[in-house]
Known about the structure:
Elements (H helix, E strand, L loop, with lengths): L12 H33 L5 H30 L8 H4 L2 H8 L6
Helix pairs in contact: 1-2, 1-4
Amino acid sequence: MSILSRPAGVETPAETVRPIVTTLVHDLRQPLSVIAACADYLKLVLPAADSRAHEHLELLHQQVGEANRILHDAVLELLYTGASRETAPSETVSSRSLTNAASPAVTY
């Protein structure tokens, strides 16, 4: 048995954390989406003359985008943990699960 091979049924670290990471990212992005939607609504109903409120809404949008970027980077880092140099990422993490987990829910 090669040092690089693993017995059948033994998960890699990436396979072990993938369901945890995707659930965590989904659960964190849900409230971020709600926050962004509320900010959009407030932007529509607030008087245009209230420049200070609009500045704060823009800051809110920027912070939601930043939180999504952090989640995206964390997904990439966590899902590739444990992948050997000899194993291509596509063999360790399916492109569909990576895309679903890493794509930002809200972009600005």
